[in-house]
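Need a sequence for this fold. Nothing fancy.
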């Protein structure tokens, strides 16, 4: 494991220990965040799967109804019946914070037609399949918008999970081990210096004691 190129001083050792403590705390917080993101992501995926199945089932029914209507009505009559819609849909797009991720929120409103009067045509020359398909298409619109919202949210959560995972791995496998090795290296170097200083002090003490003994001998002679 690599060791940082720093001066082996006690001040540097204290600074690195504080940095290691901060890195370990950040690592713990990021792991918690990653786990919470994964939990929320799995919830989104399950809901997304349910919505997709519902939407696909309803859309298949709508396509089938339009296909039958196209078979029993002339193309010109079918096109004329759907040319001028009675209802307008307005979509409002905003966002909300979900686990520190800004995800989209879709809200829509309808105007121009009542619940019982949504068909843009009269019923005299149209088929019942066309009526059912138009009504089903109106019902599936909220599900389609919710599905789009869920899929985009899941995508953004997946990106945030990957980014958090990379940060966790960088701390766990690079930064924290490097700091630990550097702290260990500096501690060993400081201990070695202390032992060297202690040995020199002991040698100096022995020399001074020896000089004192010799001085007293000379004085006694």
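Here you go.
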């Amino acid at each position: 494991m690599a060791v940082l190129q720093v001066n082996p001083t006690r001040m540097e050792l204290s600074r690195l220990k504080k940095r290691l403590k901060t890195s370990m705390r950040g690592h713990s917080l990021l792991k918690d965040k990653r786990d919470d993101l994964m939990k929320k992501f799995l919830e989104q995926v399950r809901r997304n799967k349910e919505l997709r199945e519902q939407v696909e089932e309803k859309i298949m029914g709508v396509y089938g109804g339009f296909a039958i209507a196209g078979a029993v009505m002339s193309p010109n009559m079918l096109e004329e019946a759907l040319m001028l819609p009675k209802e307008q849909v307005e979509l409002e797009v905003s966002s909300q914070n979900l686990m520190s991720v800004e995800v989209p929120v879709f809200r829509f409103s309808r105007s121009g037609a009542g619940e019982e009067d949504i068909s843009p045509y009269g019923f005299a020359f149209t088929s019942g399949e066309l009526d059912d398909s138009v009504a089903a298409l109106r019902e599936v619109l909220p599900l389609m918008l919710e599905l789009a919202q869920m899929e985009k949210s899941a995508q953004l959560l997946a990106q945030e999970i990957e980014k958090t995972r990379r940060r966790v791995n960088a701390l766990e496998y690079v930064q924290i081990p490097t700091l630990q090795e550097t702290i260990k290296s500096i501690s060993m170097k400081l201990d070695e210096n202390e032992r060297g200083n202690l040995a020199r002090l002991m040698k100096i003490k022995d020399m001074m004691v020896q000089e004192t003994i010799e001085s007293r001998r000379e004085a006694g002679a």
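For context: Residues 66 and 114 are 23 Å apart (CA to CA).
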